[in-house]
Amino acid sequence: MIRSVIAILITSATPxxxxxxxxxxxxxxxxxxxxxxxxxxDVDQTAAASDYRCGLKTRDGHxxxxxALLSFEQMHQGVHVIAAADxxxxxxxxxxxxxxxxxxxxxxxxxxxxxxxxxxxxxYQSVYCHMKLGSVRVTPGQRVVRGQLLGEVGLSGxxxxxxxxxxxxxxAEIIDPFAPSQSNTCSEPLETLWLDTPPYNDAGLFTVGLxxxxxxxxxxxxxxxxxxxxxxxDAMVLYAHAFNGNxxxxxxxxxxxxxxxxxxxxxxxxxxxxxxxxxYGRRAPSQGWSKGDYRGYARLIRGNTILAVRHADxxxx
Length: 317
Hints:
2 domains, Glucose Permease (Domain IIA), Immunoglobulin-like, five-stranded mixed beta sheet, 317 residues, globular, mainly beta
């Protein structure tokens, strides 16, 4: 979500106030168990990108905190978006379809998708993006309390995976709730806007893809390895490119197709690695793969905690 998109949702500026912790988790989920923080706000003002701990979990110009679900199935079952703090609803949108973004599509300034904006009366506002069509349960002018249902996580706007994008603003300025002063970047902040600050971990997944063979790292990084279609007789390989993995971390690889589960495989890292690639696949069955759509998931797991999840789709023609 680029900064200009959020600007569309922001009204007149409000006075700056002292930073006081007031935010709760905006999703009814458990971090590391049923959801993960996928991306943080980009605090680097150049063309580079850096999260508040000088890590890799952000993208250039990213304006908010992305909390991702573990699967599309979880989205279909319904995961509640809840108010991060008390306040008054200032604006909503509840008309965008739930569908993966197709590059080149004109979203007409509605990149945030179905959304809610809340003014918290303390100089801060919160914006909740990519909600499910028809799920928004509040109206402009309504008072809400922390934890109150706003709607559900969806797939609307500029996104290809079900997640909530939460942006915190102070007037027209975007604020990183993990480091609102921006003076303690690269270390654990002593003060945040969170009542219970979510723990930070620097490990994650750069990318996940499906191919017809085990690719090398160069092909993964260039995008050459990724396939969007296969023939019925091609092999099917799911690969994951991870960063900052520790010894004994696990990468779980799963592919699901029209006939159900294609395979599950777990690869364990045998040493600390700044970058690592793992892949697993199957040859086509004797009768060939069933035609249709297949989806692969990769999860990076440390102990009992899920650190990251990404997916890839492919069609058998």
